[in-house]
């Protein structure tokens, strides 16, 4: 039986039905929820009706969205049906837990149809409406959409913006927002101007409350997150895992250089930054020359290797051959004797992720396994891949979360260090160039920018 | 002799290791203990799960907040203020509840003889009533201001009617002037069965000690009826939209927040409110059975004695629950959710029966840690078809390098660490180990899931994990938590009431 991080998940299927005019941040919220839940091993997927519609109408103008345009209406209804059919298939054949239906769903008629379908299939619908009349927020979203939406590919931005605003008006004509009077029996959340006012109605399960809490903690202010492993440690030199060793001479050099790297990466935000470290000596030594405020988190300590702590991979292979094999076969689930698995680390990192969503500029100095987990959250890396990512020493990673993607930048310190990367099926460290394993290159290779939906 | 710390909070706990021997108190079986959620906080009080604090002892990103409750009598304001205080204190926010009714009782012991009837109206009609009401409210307000100024408090919870707009205006003005943010939480209940239950609870409050229950109920209804006609719900006329408030409707059925942009505390409070349920069941704590060598690193299975223990435990617990529920309208059911299915053609018109754990009053769920012998201790429950959930967060405190060492070996091999642990067993961390504080932070996500469970639950875990959860439910200080003891042959029962929780120890072999 799988161990879920949120116990109430058993027997629950939830469909989060987004509601709201275009440019209300629905896709942003949808993708964030999927990423957060997937990271917690709760099976989640986003179904974006726009993507289905684009198959029949790839570059429609505003008139296409007029409620009187019968051809347009037909295509849009077919797209919605196709998306919902795929969603139902996903629930049933892939044991889905939380689906997000990312569409405008602005009419009560459409919502009633979805409600009926969900209930007939024993899926709890949860409506999530983003309602906004703050021009500043809307304009910001419009800028995002007109520059990133495939609908306006290759179009002059001003033309795109004016067409997009016309499209919004078309939706506005038929928009019926959720109200307590008429929808009081439904499970719904209504965000008014992001969170000026929030209405939370009939939340029935812990999982739903968790989604709401997460959404309430999201913000769209610009900020960056910086990630770094500690400098090379004495254990790294000896090829040992775990322990609480001091930095090596080269590791110390990295610590000395780190303030300069941070300044280079953060620019004028360099003083507006908080440093988080683990409680282990090597991360604190790495942070010692940074002048910013520092915070220690036990939750950022390295994955506990239990009985294998302080051994080299060769020693582990000799002393615990069965364990060594099992770990290679399923690295995410394997729990060291008396220690932790990657899944365990993700559970203890959850409060860190929630806090990171709320915070602005943060530099995290931590360890290989922990960094893999945090990176996997921001970059949507699947569980099968994340434990195998290569994250080199003496490199500062800058993550810049944007509405639809996270931009990654790597800044190398140019201080040599050993490789601590172990490929599958060997106890030797270092990266073989012949390897066909693409996932390990997620960080050393070209930055990926993943987009869902 | 313990030196008073220079700064309160975990900050100084880490800087100035200290420990009070006197606070180590053991408990004997059968004794009922009341939780400490109403205790006055000492200036050097340290909170179990405080993540970090500044030199002032406050969470730096939260500021000072007055939580002002609003609502008619029998709307669960007292229960709400107490459970919020317990949760916020746990998170490391220096919080204290100020019940106006406590002030009134302290001043006038017998309300029937000493106080005119109209005192209980938000706007008394007699001169004497007005004078008394004003002086009692003033004492309470003064104490709250003092709590912020002198006791370095961060959150005060003001448990009073505040049903009139002008009362709220006064509070807003008074505290804003002192740079304290005000968050109103209005409890609105329109479900008659909930009101009825609250009236029953109120009739058993200290005000009605020794009263005939029917007479007490009648008297309490008078208080409601005096205020219902003059009640002005928050922002009813749209002229209170500048205030920061949360409307809490039918105990979480609906929540409306106003003006709450990204406040850490407000978000936390909303998350808590979404999950806070009226509890009819109890939480039970039990240890796991024994294994042969009792080694940490090996993760052993139960031995013969352990298997026997698991049977005894299951029998005793089910027997205890059955006895407790005898005569109560809630039947004993052994399911996690016990919802009946609504089998009808017009399915979509109805909500699904709740399928989540613990949603019903008669539900029962067992949680265990993921270690083998702990999980196996729950096998007799599994065999009876009872839901058992393994929770990683419930695993015991990681002993690090002192794992499986005897006390003598620890003293010998880690003399300095041993001495530090004696100074501050809550925050001290042996090499590579977790401290109790680390454990409390790790277990925090479980608390709200517990809050959500209406029915009974049993938690089988190591003594260290039980101590932390007990610490939350009973509002223990972190001086106490490391020394709490949970012998194998005792079952601990924690029961809820609006004003405070109670703990009882039950010998499983009796």
From TrEMBL, chain A:
Its EC number is 3.1.3.46. It holds the Pfam family 6PF2K. InterPro entries: 6Pfruct_kin, 6Phosfructo_kin, His_Pase_superF_clade-1, His_PPase_superfam, P-loop_NTPase, PG/BPGM_mutase_AS. GO terms for cellular component: cytosol. Keywords: ATP-binding, Hydrolase, Kinase, Nucleotide-binding, Transferase. GO terms for molecular function: 6-phosphofructo-2-kinase activity; ATP binding; fructose-2,6-bisphosphate 2-phosphatase activity. This is fructose-2,6-bisphosphate 2-phosphatase. It comes from Cyberlindnera jadinii (strain ATCC 18201 / CBS 1600 / BCRC 20928 / JCM 3617 / NBRC 0987 / NRRL Y-1542). The lineage of its organism: Eukaryota, Fungi, Dikarya, Ascomycota, Saccharomycotina.
From TrEMBL, chain B:
Residues 20-31 have a biased composition (Low complexity). Gene3D superfamilies: P-loop containing nucleotide triphosphate hydrolases, Phosphoglycerate mutase-like. GO terms for biological process: fructose 2,6-bisphosphate metabolic process; fructose metabolic process. It comes from the Eukaryota. Residues 55-278 form the 6-phosphofructo-2-kinase domain. GO terms for molecular function: 6-phosphofructo-2-kinase activity; ATP binding; fructose-2,6-bisphosphate 2-phosphatase activity. GO terms for cellular component: cytosol. Residues 1-32, 327-357 are annotated as: Disordered. It holds the Pfam family 6PF2K. Keywords: ATP-binding, Kinase, Nucleotide-binding, Transferase. Residues 334-343 have a biased composition (Polar residues). The keyword S-adenosyl-L-methionine does not apply. PANTHER family: 6-PHOSPHOFRUCTO-2-KINASE/FRUCTOSE-2,6-BISPHOSPHATASE (PTHR10606), 6-PHOSPHOFRUCTO-2-KINASE_FRUCTOSE-2,6-BISPHOSPHATASE YLR345W-RELATED (PTHR10606:SF39). This is Bifunctional 6-phosphofructo-2-kinase/fructose-2,6-bisphosphate 2-phosphatase. It comes from Cyberlindnera jadinii (strain ATCC 18201 / CBS 1600 / BCRC 20928 / JCM 3617 / NBRC 0987 / NRRL Y-1542) (Torula yeast). The lineage of its organism: Eukaryota, Fungi, Dikarya, Ascomycota, Saccharomycotina.
């Amino acid at each position: 039986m799988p161990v879920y991080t949120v116990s109430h998940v058993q027997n629950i299927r939830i469909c989060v039905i987004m509601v709201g005019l275009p440019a209300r941040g629905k896709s942003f919220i949808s993708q964030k929820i999927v990423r957060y839940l997937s990271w917690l091993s709760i099976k989640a997927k986003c179904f974006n009706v726009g993507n289905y519609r684009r198959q029949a109408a790839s570059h429609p103008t505003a008139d296409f969205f007029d409620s009187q345009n019968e051809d347009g209406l037909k295509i849009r209804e077919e797209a919605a049906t196709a998306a919902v059919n795929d969603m139902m298939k996903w629930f049933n054949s892939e044991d889905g837990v939380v689906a997000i239906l990312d569409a405008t769903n602005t009419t009560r008629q459409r919502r009633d149809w979805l409600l009926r379908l969900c209930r007939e299939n024993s899926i709890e619908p949860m409506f999530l409406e983003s309602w906004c009349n703050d021009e500043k927020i809307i304009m910001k979203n419009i800028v995002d959409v007109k520059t990133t939406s495939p609908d306006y590919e290759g179009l002059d931005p001003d033309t795109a913006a004016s067409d997009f605003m016309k499209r919004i008006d078309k939706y506005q004509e038929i928009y019926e927002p959720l109200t307590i009077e008429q929808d009081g029996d439904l499970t719904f959340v209504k965000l008014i101007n992001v969170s000026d006012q929030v209405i939370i109605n009939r939340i029935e399960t812990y999982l739903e409350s968790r989604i709401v809490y997460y959404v309430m903690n999201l913000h769209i202010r610009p900020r960056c997150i910086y990630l770094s492993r500690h400098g090379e440690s004495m254990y790294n030199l000896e090829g040992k895992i775990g322990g609480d060793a001091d930095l090596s001479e080269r590791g110390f050099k990295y610590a000395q250089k780190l303030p300069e790297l941070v300044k280079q990466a953060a620019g004028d935000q360099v003083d507006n930054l908080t440093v988080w470290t683990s409680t282990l000596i090597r991360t604190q030594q790495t942070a010692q020359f940074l002048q910013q405020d520092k915070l220690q988190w036990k939750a950022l300590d390295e994955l506990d290797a239990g009985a294998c702590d302080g051994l080299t991979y060769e020693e582990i292979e000799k002393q615990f051959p069965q364990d060594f094999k099992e770990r290679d076969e399923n690295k995410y689930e394997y729990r060291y004797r008396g220690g932790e698995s990657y899944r365990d680390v993700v559970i203890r990192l959850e409060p860190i992720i929630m806090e990171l969503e709320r915070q602005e500029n943060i530099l995290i100095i931590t360890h290989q396994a922990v960094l893999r987990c945090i990176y996997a959250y921001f970059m949507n890396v699947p569980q099968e891949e994340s434990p195998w990512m290569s994250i080199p020493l003496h490199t500062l990673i800058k993550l810049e979360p944007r509405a639809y993607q996270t931009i990654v930048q790597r800044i190398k310190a140019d201080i040599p260090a050993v490789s601590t990367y172990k490929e599958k099926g060997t106890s030797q460290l270092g990266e073989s160039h012949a390897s066909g394993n693409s996932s390990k290159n997620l960080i050393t290779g070209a930055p990926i920018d993943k987009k869902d939906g | 002799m313990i030196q008073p710390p220079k700064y309160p909070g975990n900050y100084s706990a880490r800087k100035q290791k200290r420990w009070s021997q006197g606070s180590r108190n053991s408990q004997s079986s059968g004794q009922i203990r009341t939780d400490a959620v109403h205790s006055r906080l000492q200036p050097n009080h340290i909170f179990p799960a405080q993540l970090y604090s500044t030199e002032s002892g406050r969470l730096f990103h939260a500021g000072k907040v007055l939580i002002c409750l609003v609502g008619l009598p029998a709307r669960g304001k007292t229960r709400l203020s107490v459970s919020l205080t317990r949760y916020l204190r746990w998170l490391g926010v220096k919080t204290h509840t100020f019940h106006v009714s406590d002030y009134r009782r302290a001043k006038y012991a017998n309300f029937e003889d000493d106080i005119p009837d109209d005192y209980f109206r938000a706007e008394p009609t007699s001169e004497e009533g007005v004078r008394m009401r004003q002086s009692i409210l003033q004492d309470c307000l003064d104490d709250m201001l003092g709590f912020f100024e002198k006791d370095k408090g961060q959150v005060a919870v003001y448990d009073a009617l505040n049903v009139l707009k002008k009362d709220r205006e006064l509070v807003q003005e008074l505290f804003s002037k002192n740079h304290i943010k005000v968050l109103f939480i209005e409890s609105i209940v329109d479900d008659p069965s909930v009101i009825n239950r609250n009236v029953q609870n109120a009739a058993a409050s200290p005000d009605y000690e020794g009263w005939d229950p029917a007479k007490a109920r009648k008297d309490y209804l008078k208080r409601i009826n005096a205020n219902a006609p003059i009640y002005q719900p928050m922002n009813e006329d749209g002229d209170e939209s500048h205030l920061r408030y949360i409307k809490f409707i039918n105990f979480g059925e609906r929540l409306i927040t106003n003006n709450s942009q990204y406040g850490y505390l407000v978000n936390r409070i909303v998350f808590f409110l979404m999950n806070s349920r009226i509890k009819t069941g109890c939480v039970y704590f039990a240890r796991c059975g024994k294994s042969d060598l009792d080694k940490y690193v090996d993760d052993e299975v139960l031995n013969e004695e352990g298997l026997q223990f698991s049977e005894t435990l299951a029998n005793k617990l089910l027997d205890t629950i059955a006895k407790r529920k005898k005569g109560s309208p809630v039947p004993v059911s052994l399911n996690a959710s016990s919802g009946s299915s609504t089998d009808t053609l017009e399915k979509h018109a109805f909500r699904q029966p709740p399928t989540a754990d613990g949603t019903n009053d008669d539900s029962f769920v067992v949680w265990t840690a993921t270690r083998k012998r702990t999980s196996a201790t729950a096998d007799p429950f599994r065999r009876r078809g009872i839901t058992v959930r393994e929770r990683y967060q419930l695993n015991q405190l990681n002993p690090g390098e002192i794992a499986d060492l005897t006390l003598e070996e620890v003293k010998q091999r880690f003399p300095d660490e041993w001495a530090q642990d004696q100074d501050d067993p809550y925050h001290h961390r042996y090499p590579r180990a977790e401290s109790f504080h680390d454990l409390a932070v790790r277990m925090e996500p479980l608390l709200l899931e517990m809050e959500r469970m209406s029915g009974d639950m049993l938690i089988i875990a190591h003594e260290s994990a039980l101590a932390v959860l007990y610490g939350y439910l009973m509002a223990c200080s972190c001086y106490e938590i490391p020394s709490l003891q949970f012998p194998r042959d005792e079952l601990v029962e924690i029961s809820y009431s609006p004003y405070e929780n109670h703990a009882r120890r039950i010998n499983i072999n009796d």
